[in-house]
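Protocol step 6 of 9: fold each sequence in the batch and record its C-alpha cells directly after the sequence line. For illustration, a two-sequence batch is reproduced in full.

Sequence one:
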Amino acid sequence: MTAQSLGRKPSSSTVDGVIRNAQIDIPALPEGPWDGKRYSYAPPLHLNIDPSVALHEEFEHDVDPVTYQVLRSRFWNLNLDHSDTVKRVSGSPLIVYMDDFNTSLLTECGDTIVCGPSIQYFTGHGDMAVKWTLENRSANPGIGEGDVFIQNDPYIATTHQMDVMIYQPVFHEGRLFSWIMNNAHVGDIGGVDAGSFCPGAPDMFHESTPVPPMLLVRSGVMQRDVAEMFVRKSRTPEMIALQLRSQIAGLRATRERFGQMLEEFGPLVVKGAMRRMIRDCSEAVGRRLDQVPDGEWRQAIYIGSAGPGDRDVHRLVTTLTKVGDRLTFSNQGTDPQYSAANGTLAGWRSGAVCAAATLLAYDQLYCPAGVADHLEFKPVPGTMNVAKYPGAVSPGTASIISVYLASQVISKMLLAGPPEVHDVSNAAGGVSLPGWWVAAGYDRNGKFVADLTGDSLCGAIGAFPWRDGVDTGGAWWWPRSKSGNAEEWETALPILYLYRQEQIDSGGPGRWRGGNGLEVAIVPHKTTDLSCLIISSDPAINTTPGLAGGMPGHSGNYKFARETDLRDRFAEGKMPGGPRELENLIGVIDRMSPKASEPVTPADVFCISYSAGGGFGDALERPPESVALDVAAHRITPRAARQHYGVVLADDGSADETASQEVRVALRAQRLADAIRPSGDRPEAVIDQSAIISVSSALGVGFVANDAVWVCTKCRHELASVKDNYKLGAAMLQDSPDLIDGLMYPRPGDFCDVKFVLRQFICPTCGVSLSIECCREDDPPAPEITLTSDGVRQLRARLGEAS
C-alpha cells in the first residue's frame, strides 16, 4: 500500500500520517498519458511498484511527545548537515555563495517529510522523482541497497536541466525505509549557450539533453560510464564532476547518520515520527484553511520578450479554488507554450507547494507532504506553465513566475481570513522576474567560466498587511539565500563591480511599502574574451504585483554602454558611485533586450537592476511620518514622497501634515476626475459599518437583510452584488506604466508592440485604491475574487461572532 492508496478522506487530517489524495485526478486530465514523456509525469493514485521492492510501512502509532520532538529536530538537523556537506565539497560559487540547491528526506514511497531551508521551489519536485523511479525503475534496473539515482528531466521532476537531482534509497532489514535527496544547480551541462540557459531555444533539442532517472551508483560503486556521459556534455567538466561528487558525499554522510538514528530509536519509532510530522503539518494547514471563506481567487501575470524577436505579451494564470480544507489550482487561461519561456507540470506544482508551505505551514519545519495533503491540481497541457515535450524550459521563466502566481492567489485568499491568517499575506518580491545573466569567457588564468552571479538574490521582500517589505531582503522562497560578496564574484568571474547598492524608489508604493531592490554596474576585468547572455523577459511587462491596491514593484532593467572612455575616467581618479554619476561620466546608457547576447569589451559597461517588492494597500494612506523617515533613510526620494504618497516635507525633513493633507485631497480628487466611471452606477447606498467584514485592505462584504454586496470599507459605498465582479462597480484608471513613473517602470514600447497598461481600480466615491492590474489595454477587468454561497455564509457567521 502506497502513501496515496487510501484516497481522499472527508476529515481535515491525515489518517495515521498517510496522505489522502494523489493531488492530481489523472482520469480527469485531458489527453495523456501523463508519464513524463510527451506529457509531464503525474503520480497515479496507486503506484505501480515491482514486487521485488518491499516497502517498510509499519510504524509506531503512539510515539511519546518527547521522543517525537527529539526525532523531529534530528530530521531537521540531518538536512542541515546534508546541506553543509554538499557546500563543503562543492567548488561551485552557485552552491557555496548562493545556496542554489536543497536537501530533503522522504518516506519509502516518496512523500517529503522535511526540506532544508535553501531554495524552496524544489520542494514539490522530489516526491515526483521518487514516485516515477519507484514505478519505472523498480523492475529494471531495480532499486537496491547502496544505489544512487541521478535525473534532470523537467518533464519528470525538476525545473530545468541544470537542476540535477541525486537521491538514494535507505533500506532497513531488506525493505525500503526512506529516501534521501538533494537537488542542485550544477552549472553548464551543454546546450547551444554557455551556462545551459538557452533563451532562444525553439525546443528542448537545442537545450541540454534531459536525463531520466538512472543509476549513478550501483550497490555503492560509482558507474563510470554514467558519470562520464553526464560530465561529457559540459563546457566546464571538472566543475560538474566535482559537483556530482559533492552531492553524493552529502547523501553518504546523511545515510550514515540516518542509520545511527534507526539503531538508536528503532525503525517503528522513527517511521512513526515521520508519519506524525505529516499529520501534524496537515492538521495545522487544515486549521488555518477552516478560518477562510470558500471561494475562488485569480492572478494573471504577463511576460514579454518570451523569445528572440518576440514583441507580444503572454499571459500566465493561476486560479485557486477553496472548498473546506481543500485548495485546487488550475492554470486555465494560460497562453500556449512559446519558445523557451515555458515550465512543466513539476515546476507549476512545486510553485504552489512551496507557496502554500510558506504561507500556511510556516511553523512546521518545511514538511511539504503535510501541505500537499490539502492541494489538488487541474493542469491544462500545452500551456506556458504546463508545457508538452519538447517544449524548451531552460530559462526557468514560467516556473519562477508560477511561484509568485501561487503566492499571490494564496495571499489574496488569506486576506479574507481573521488576523492570524490575514497577516501572513505577502506581495510579490525578489526574483519575481527571473532576471539572470550568464558571464561566459576566459578568466585571467585562461580558464573558461560560464556562471551567474548571486546579485538577483539581493531582490526584495514585498509588503505585508501590517508592515513594510524588506529592502534587498532576497526571496521568501529562498530563505537561506546569500547573494555572495562582490569580492567573491570578482574572484569567481572576470568582472569588476563599479557599484552594487540598493535602488532607491524601486519598492512598490503602498500603505505598506515594498522593499527596494538592487542595482549594479560591472565591467570586464583582466579578460578580453567575455560575453553576457541575459536570461529574462521584458521587465517593462511588470511581473511584481502588489496586493490589495498596492502598486507593483520595479521588475528590473538591463542597460549597456559600448566603447566608453570609462577607463580614462579611472585614470583621473573618478569612480561612479551610482547610476547618475555613471551617466555623468560616460553619457546615456541604453536599455538592452532581455534576450540579448553581447560580447563585453574592456571599454563596455553593463548595468542591471533586479526586482523589488510590491506594495500593500493605498499609498495615500501611509502615515506621513513614515514617508518622511523613508526619505531620511534614502529609501525613497522627495519626488516619490509627493508623487506616490502625497507627502510634503518641511525644511527640517519632517512631514508637513497640513500641506500633505492638502496634496492628498487633491490627488484623490484627480483620481476621481481622471477615472472611467463604472457603467450603471449603483444607488448611493451606504452599508452600516457593523454589517461589513473585510476581505482585503479596502474591499469588504456588506450584508443588508438577505443580500450580500461588495463594499468599500473606507466610505462604505456599495460597489456590486457579491455575485458579480466587484471591479465592474469600481472606477478605473489606466495608463502605460512608464507614464505613471518613468523611473520605476520602464517603457513597454521599447520591446513590445502590444499596448500594455497599469490599471488601477478605485472606489468611485472616495477614490481609495482597491486593486492594481498590469495587463493588455483591451483586457476586460479580471475577476479577482469570487465567493461561493457557503463562503458568504461563513463570512456572515464570522460577522455574527464578532458582534
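Sequence two, same batch, same settings:
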Amino acid sequence: MRRGAGIRTLFHVISLILVTIIYMAPFFWMISTSLKPNYELYEFPPKLIPSVVEFTNYSKAVQRFPFFVYFRNSLIIAGGAVLGALISCPLVAYGLSVLKWRGREIVFYAILATIMLPSAVTLIPTFLIFSRLNMVNTFWPLILPSFFGHPFYIFLVRQFFLTLPRDLFEAAKIDGASEFQTYFKIALPLIKPTLVIVGLFQFIASWNDYLGPLIYLTDEKKYPLALGLPQFLDRYGTLWNQMMAAATMAVVPTLIFFVFAQKHLLESIKFTGLKG
C-alpha cells in the first residue's frame, strides 16, 4: 500500500511539473525574446536562450513609445476599479448573507443569473448611458461599473461570510452595535483574505482589459498598456524584442500583486464555498 501511494504521489508530482512547464513556456519565451538581439529574432530553429543578452531592449522600448504614460493610465484604471469592487461587493454580500429579509435568496439568484448574460448584450446600452453622461473618452466608464458590484465577487464574498459564526454578529447586536458598526468592525476584518483575492481578480481584469478602453477611449494619451502595446506594434514596426520587453514590464505589477496575495488566495480557497 505504501508503495502504491508513493507511485501515485510521484505521478501527481510529475503531472504538476509538466502542466507548470506548459503554462510557463509562453512567459519564458517572452522574457527570452525580450533579451535577444535583432538578428536572432527570426532564426530557425529558434533559440530559447539568446547567445547575447541585450538588456538595452528595455531602455529602447521605453524610449520608443510612451510606456510610462500608458503605465500610469493602467494604474489609474485598475486602482479605481479595485477600490470600487472592494467597496461595493462586500457590502452587497453582507446584506445577502448576514442580514435576514424577505426575498433575499431570490435577489441573490437573480444576481448570479447575470453572470450568464453575455457582455456583448449590455455593450451598446452601457455605451449609450455613458455617452449621454458625457463620459466617453474618460476613465469613468472603465471604473464606475465596479462601484455597482460584480456578481462573481459578490458570490465569493458571500460564501466566505456564510462560514463565519452567527454568534459574532448576535453578540455585537446585544452589545448595542449598529449594522454598520458590525460590518466595519467585525465582518470586514474577518474576510480580509477574500478581499485581497477580490482585489487581485479585479486588478488583473482591469489591467488586461482591451475591449473597454478600445470602445471608450479615443485620445491616445489616455490609453492603458493593454491598448498601448498593440499601438506600439502597428505604428513602430515589428521589433519583437522591444515589444516583448515592454510586455514583460507590463506584467510586473500583476506578478507583484500576486506574490503578496498568494497566502490569502490559499486561505480563501480553503474557506470559500463550504456553505451554500
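Proceed to step 7 once all outputs are recorded. Observation for sequence two: The chain has 13 helices and no strands.
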